[in-house]
Amino acid sequence: QVHLVESGGGLVQAGGSLRLSCAASGTIFRVTFMGWFRQAPGNQRELVAGMLSSGSTNYADSVKGRFTISRDNAKNTAFLQMNSLKPEDTAVYYCKFVVAGIQYWGQGTQVTVSS
2 Cβ partners below 8 Å, 6+ apart? Predict the structure, then answer.
């Protein structure tokens, strides 16, 4: 079993920055994917940024050039650096790990960007 805990969300003004963290604990081996998703009220959950075990990354078009996903393998932690935040980035952000073919989700952290 794998447990994910997110942190780093909050309220920020437009143009500001936040850094989200997702720490994994439990039986962790063969992590093939780490990613961040977000869900705004009335919207479907969408991929924001993802990283494969190879280090290959992909980003939603809306965040390219502003957000950066990274990881600390030794600490089983994923990060999402969010710069130049916009009000439309407001959402609950969730991290997801795929470990040995099983998907695990964090509880979500609220990010609110004021205009």
Answer: 24, 25, 26, 27, 28, 97, 99, 102, 104
Is 27 a residue whose pLDDT tops 90? no
CA 44, CA 66: separation in Å to the nearest integer? 21
Residues linked to residue 35 through DSSP beta bridges, in sequence order: 50, 96
Tell me the pLDDT band of 30, cut-offs 50, 70 and 90.
confident
The three-point CA angle 103-106-107 to 5° equals: 135
Res. 70 pLDDT band, cuts 50 70 90: very high
Under 8 Å between Cβ of 18 and 73: no
pLDDT digits (tens, 9 = 90+) for 97-108: 999 999 999 999
Side chain identity at 77, as an amino acid letter?
A: T
Report how far Cα 50 is from the mean position of its chain's Cα atoms.
8
User: What is the residue whose two structure tokens read 């979500």?
Assistant: 108
